[in-house]
Amino acid sequence: MLNSEAERHPFLQGLSKHRGAPPTVIVIFGASGDLTARKLVPAIYNLCLDNLLPPNFFLIGYGRKDVSDAAFREGITKSVQTHSRRELNADIWERVKNSAVYHRGDYDDDSAYKGLSARIDTIEKDLGRDVQALFYISTPPSVFKPILENLGASRLARRHQNSPCASRVVIEKPFGSDFDSARELNQVITEQFEEKQVYRIDHYLGKETVQDLLVQRFANSIFEPLWNRRYVECVQITVAEDLGVGSRGSYYEQSGATRDMIQNHTMQLLSLTAMEPPVSLDPEAIRDEKVKLLKAIQPLNPNERDGDVVRAQYDEGLIGGKKVPGYKQEEGVAADSGTETYAALRLSINNWRWAGVPFYMRSGKRMARRVSEIAIQFKRPPGILFGDAERFDLASNTMVIQIQPDEGTTLLLNSKIPGLETRTQPVKMHFRYRTTYGSNTPEAYERLILDAMIGDSTLFIRGDETEASWRLITPVLEHWQSLGPRGMGSYVAGSWGPLASEQLLWRNRHEWRRAGP
Ligand code: BG6
User: Fold this and answer.
1) Nearest-5° angle of CA 179, CA 240, CA 362?
2) pTM for this structure?
3) Residues with catalytic roles
4) Pick from 112, 201, 104, 186: which is nearest to 145 by CA?
5) C-alpha of residue 131 to centroid of ligand 1, in Å
6) Under a CB-based contact definition with an 8 Å cutoff, are residues 239 and 269 in contact?
7) How many percent of the chain have pLDDT more than 70?
8) What is the pLDDT of residues 498-507, one digit of tens each?
């Protein structure tokens, strides 16, 4: 039974065992970029180590720099040594390393794509079998369009169409910078590829704990009856980082916390937390529910004083006892920058399940600690028996799903302190990945690259989904754009954000919980 069920639903398959991908060549556009070195190549290595790469696997790095094959192979080996979660095993890596070649080309040069096409044909000819091409676009967004158009014009997009070896394209974020640009990008994509060939990445979806959200919600019977406006007081989603913008100042200036984190990662956490149960684990069934949820969110009021959003920039402060500069002093950042490094939102979901339950989201750089979590705060019990606040220290029951670090779930309950007097105290029930499963869980990119190879789009964003999220956020961004730095709040680096974000919750008599286990 499990087998046939697993065959119908690729998500289940992913949970149980790997189904072999056809012979595959991954072409990474942006081969000398940071993401390739830090995440993509180490992920490929770890898949190789777990024997999850197809037996015939090839890697082509595409980039503008002049790099020899030997230097490319050396570079990818170094990136495994530096960034892989598991040590380099040279014998196992040999297989991928020897298959790797570098293809130099400009992104808008059609002859370079002809050359690429010829290379893939040669691989196929030597192998004597069809090969699936997976084009991984990990470049700055300014060249997404020429790459996609050239993949179309060179017919690379249409190789082995409608067969198991049909081409696929993986697109990194940022997917547009507002609703119009996201829609335009979707149009460019769909002129060259069918939606089923397209894999828009949000690496949060590849995190183990995020995948577990579906399981925790729908493979247990005790939560779902409580998961609604009758029992839930509010939901708080926090994605906090202690790092600053580092060397990415000039990228971040164009982005800010809302485009960089809220529009994608936190919105994904929100939709998986709040969506209705899908009719099956089919990728489309899950994505349909996410889109429905996003569409039910009430438009945001962007006003500073009585609105639903707060933005701020970090000032200098202390992180881990060390002094760190303010955002405006970071390299590549304008002295009069109007870019927010922190954003908080209050969302209302206008559907039967959630009407009247505020959903709060916040994300920022240089916050007190690195922590991502979803906290479901339940309504307080009636104060009939233990309502006397002098005697009883009662907390709201809260279920906290810790996305990272220290992955797990915590349930906050009230308990009697042992003793002859009746006194209460909040206590925590913990489930920790580390203690239950050990600490070496796969990185998000391992799962996502594997899924793209085997053609499971569950953990990728559909075109209409990204548009629905941009539709909600864009009016806020436009409002902020019109104000520039005027009205921008500030917070001390190493703190939990600006006072205005506390006030956003006080209006509903709520307060941010202190995030963390
Ligand atoms: C990226 C953002 O998408 O996510 C970065 O561009 C951010 O600014 C990163 O630091 C956070 O990812 P993670 O997996 O470390 O939480």
Assistant:
1) 50
2) 0.93
3) 265
4) 186
5) 33
6) yes
7) 96
8) 999 999 999 9
Q: Which residues line ligand 1 (CB under 6 A)?
A: 173, 241, 260
What pLDDT sits at residue 3? Answer: 43
The predicted structure's pLDDT at residue 180:
98
Q: What is the CA(104)–ligand 1 centre distance, in A?
A: 29
Residue 507's contacts (CB-CB under 8 Å, 6 or more residues apart) are none
Helix, strand or coil, per DSSP, at residue 169:
strand
Look up residue 24 and give its two tokens.
């595959």
Inform me whether the pLDDT recorded for 7 exceeds 60.
Answer: no
How are beta strands 317-319 and 322-324 bridged, if at all? Answer: antiparallel
The pLDDT, as a whole number, for residue 9 is 52
What is the Cα–Cα distance from 257 to 84, expressed in whole angstroms? 27
Domain definitions of the chain by residue range: 14-172, 206-506
3-state secondary structure of 320: coil
CATH 3.90.190.10, domain 206-506, yes or no: no
**What pLDDT shows up at residue 111?**
97
- Rounded mean pLDDT of the chain? 93
**Which residue, by CA, sits nearest to atom 13 of ligand 1?**
204
Whether residue 164 contacts residue 129, with contact meaning beta carbons closer than 8 Å, is answered with no
What spacing in Å lies between the alpha carbon of 390 and ligand 1's midpoint?
Answer: 43
Q: What is the CATH number of domain 14-172?
A: 3.40.50.720
Helix (H, G, I), strand (E, B) or coil at 31: coil
Can you list the alpha helix ranges (DSSP code H) found in 52-169? 69-83, 90-99, 110-127, 144-153
* Gap between the Cα atoms of 235 and 353, Å rounded: 13
What is the Å distance from ligand 1's center to 403 Cα? 13
pLDDT one-digit tens code per residue, 266-310: 999 999 999 999 999 999 999 999 999 999 999 999 998 889 999
Q: Among 204, 241, 330, which is best to mutate for testing ligand 1, by the most ligand atoms less than 8 A from CB?
A: 241
Q: Which residue puts its alpha carbon closest to atom 8 of ligand 1? A: 260
In angstroms, the CA 138 to CA 134 distance is: 12
Q: Tally Cβ neighbours within 10 Å of residue 375.
A: 22
Q: Residues 444-464: pLDDT tens digits?
A: 999 999 999 999 999 999 999
271 forms bridges with which residues in the sheet?
Answer: none
Pair 515, 363: CB distance under 8 Å: no
